[in-house]
Amino acid sequence: MISLNVNDAAHEVDVDAATPLLYVLRDHLALNGAKFGCGLGQCGACTVMVDGRAVFSCVAPVGALQGRAIRTVEGLGTAEKPGAVQRAFIEEQAAQCGYCMAGMIMRAQALLEQRADPSDAEIRDAMDPSLCRCGTQMRILRAVRRAAGYLTAAAGGTSQRASR
Amino acid sequence: MARGLCRTAAGSLLLAALAACQTSRAVQQQDAVAPGFDPAVVRRGGELAILGNCISCHTARDGKPYAGGLAMNTPVGTLYSTNITPDSETGIGRWTEEDFFRAMEEGLAPGGRHLYPAFPYDHFTHVAADDLHALYAFFMTREPVHAPPRDNRLAFPFSMRGLLAGWNMLFLHETPWQPDPAQSDQWNRGAYLAEGLAHCGACHTPRNMFLAEERSRPYAGGEIEGWDAPPLEGTLAAASPWSEDQLFEYLRRGGDDAHGSAAGPMQPVTRNLAQAPEADVRAIAVYFASLMRTRSTTGRESSRSEPPAADVDAREAGGMDAGAALFNGACAECHGVNSPRTLAGRPLLGATTSIHADSPRNAIQIVLHGIRPEQGQRGAYMPPFDATLSDSQVAAVLSYVRSHFGGGAGWRDLEGEVGRIRSGR
């Protein structure tokens, strides 16, 4: 049995320790936000957060993740009460097909928890490992900037960087 | 590390004594020169600057090209690269051609100030006058950027530039480079480039206690920024020897099908060489293929002896099983036999240099940080695993890989090494 902490909830799953987290999330925990895009750690559609850092859940064996804090997009908010990053992505209409979105949102969340006020170059660099094939990258970047503003405002500060 | 530092400090005292005997020349700084450069010469200079990879050190992350400011961590402290745009106040805009030659050949800035040999003038001293002329034309026609130099953070006594006069006396060999009449033109072209502009020995040759290259052991391997630069003189423990074509592929494309991808400090080198004149890259490949043949390279003596006691204990404690499980979940999708990547022609791990190396350092770096092409560029991509795997888990995986893919005797203190590399020590 593998013990996992996902979105602050404890779970026990009866899977092989080598099973990548993505399949456990989707097949055992019904957390279907993270998507299978390649299974090779190349596309980012499976991105979730582990101990505050963005990881590809398709190449993260659950045997390595016991005792770690795992967060998925479902843990950021709901349709009725979206989190700051989700709200920004909705307002910028960053999704076309939506397949990359959960991964993009989690990667953005991880970035903004590390860097409250990232530069445009830092945002591009941080988001680089997540691929979008529909072509909404500019909206995604705007959404990340918008989310940075929301999180900074919520913390009581103002953004030092002008949005372009 | 502390022991190495003490030796280097002792070396510096010796250099101070030598420096006292050497008077630095005071050079008159001239007014800004009006450039009128032949476009063909400028273009030639651009090609040479690519071969010299000037841009990688002289550009800060997210900085303007050639405006300097890149931090370089050395065993004696942190140095920042200088602004070599033709800005007249903060760059080299006021440098005459003579000033430029002096910097490249002797490591002296106008006014007699010594430059640190992190700027590899001990290699550039071999560059022919025509090529230096073209490089000068190239740099004088770049976009000037106002970017004042950052102060180096070197511990005393390394902060004293005067010591370099002594260092130069001992280690700067200004003899002009001579072709070897017994070798082909192509070989000689490769040798001229490698020894001079491309400064390969700056990473791939071990350094003595004065941090100068050991001339008696050229290309015997070195280290740079936490990575091992493998030996290039034939002692490399590779699964298969490197041919000229494979070296050319590697340098030009950033990887070859028989040995794998360039990683770490070799990535900016291969990115640059992708744009260099093809004949020049091929010449460099010919040169090093020839050096690598000087000793036997066909597979290393495979070690059938018992592994060191520590590794046997790990196996018996189930360490290998854990490693196999982690490999299957984290690595096998790309690196397992019959994975899509290996079917598509990627080499198996057993073919890669890092798995066969005596030190696990490069393998650890790659597992922790992955391999990433420059943003927006094509290239091999391997995800990082530093956020997924703990030190003991990385050690378990690499222990499994080393053994399973025939790398050689077990690596010692793997977990400790992972911890040190992760924290940047």
Q: How would you sum up the major sheet of chain A?
A: 5 strands, mixed
Distance between the termini of chain B: 9 Å
Q: Give the tally of β-strands of chain B.
A: 7
Q: How many individual helices of chain B?
A: 20
Radius of gyration of chain A, CA atoms, in whole angstroms? 16 Å
Uncertain regions spanning at least 5 consecutive residues of chain A: none
- Oligomer state of the chains in this structure: heterodimer
- Report the total helices of chain A: 5
Termini Cα gap of chain A: 50 Å
Quote the average pLDDT of chain B: 85
What is the count of β-strands of chain A? 5
Beta-strand proportion of chain A: 5-15%
Question: What is the strand and helix layout of this fold?
Answer:
The complex is a heterodimer of chains A (164) and B (425).
Chain A: E1 2-6, E2 9-13, H1 21-27, E3 47-50, E4 53-56, E5 69-71, H2 84-91, H3 101-114, H4 120-127, H5 137-154
Parallel strand pairs in A: 1-5
Antiparallel strand pairs in A: 1-2, 3-4, 3-5
Helix pairs in contact in A: 2-5, 3-5
Chain B: H1 2-21, H2 39-52, H3 54-57, E1 71-74, E2 77-80, H4 97-106, H5 121-124, H6 129-140, E3 153-154, H7 163-171, H8 185-195, H9 201-204, E4 222-224, E5 227-229, H10 244-253, E6 255-256, E7 260-261, H11 266-273, H12 278-292, H13 309-316, H14 319-330, H15 332-335, H16 340-343, H17 353-356, H18 361-369, H19 391-404, H20 414-422
Antiparallel strand pairs in B: 1-2, 2-3, 4-5, 6-7
